[in-house]
Amino acid sequence: MPIHNTTERWGHLSIALHWLTVVMILSLVTVGFVMEDLPNTPFKRDVYLLHKSFGLTVLALTALRLGWRFVQPTPALPDGMPAWQRWAAHGGHLGLYGLMIAIPASGWAYNWASNFATPYFGWTLMARAGAVDRELKAIAGAVHEWGVYALLALLVAHAGAAFYHHYQLKDAVLRRMAPWLKPAA
Amino acid sequence: MRFLLALTLALAAPLALATSPMGPVRYSPTDGSTLGFASSYDGETFEGRFAQFSADIAFDPASAAGRFDVVIQLASAGTENDERDETLLGADFFNASAMPQARYQAAAFRKLADGRFVADGTLTLRGITQPVPLTFRWTPGATPTLEGTATVKRLAFGIGTGDWDDTEVMPDAVSVTTRLVLQPKP
Fold first, then answer.
1. A162 to chain B, minimum CA–CA distance in Å?
2. Most CB atoms within 10 A, among A15, A45, A83, B14?
3. Mind listing the pLDDT tens digit for each residue in A95-137?
4. CATH number at residue A58
């Protein structure tokens, strides 16, 4: 299986970026929910630094994925798929891409508005702002938090649809993105 | 005769005031005065200010004599970062809710060769009292200014002990800077 996509199946790069992003997002959401309540120690600060660094990585990888998707063919939706399901698929994927950009971007804005430098695994990407911007902090914080709730809802729908294709319709949709799966009995 | 006695007393009174135990004029800082500190965490420097402090300053540069009494409201500390400020006021650092004030007092002074002075004072912070010399320049006048620096060893005062005591990450020495624009007390 080559690196490029075809109209029949995803290539190596798309598959790798998809699952890498899945693992990172699930970790980020979990850590994001618990890290606020950690006791105030240097460890808490280190956890936040990792959260921000991985979040920025998801942002960069998503930009890469979108760029790759635009210069590549994408596997076609199955024949005979009802129109409402086509709309749901396109809308859902658009929503997922939108949130995978908006959530880390709002996190970045929240960090900047709190007058923190932008960290990336031990480096500093961007110096701190110089002062706190409480209005931007409130807006960015709300987008970040509610974006995650919306993402979780979409993820349930996304995975649900994948299982529907695999186990109910018994087509190749999920296997195209997870080629190690055998066809459902 | 009684008139002469009264006149002598009237003339002598100001002289007596000038040589009273609080000889030099007493000052308090005007609104433009600042008291701040600077440190770093993980290589990233930060600065803080105390928005609320009061000072009773008496100093005669000619004799290098005087008295400083400064009371600092720790809860007024700000470092332009809400999360850091919350930690700073918390139990591991200033513990401001339990011990809301710090106090700096000095009664002994030395003159340096370059015209500056050193106040050999003590700082009481977080319930601990330690000597902290303050090196300062005194610019005389109707509203004198005092510009000074001091180094506070945070661990000696129990500031940032326990999880926060790694001096590779946050140095022990904290630099304190003050600029007081003084007006005579009424």
1. 42
2. A15
3. 999 999 999 999 999 999 999 999 999 999 999 999 999 999 9
4. 1.20.950.20
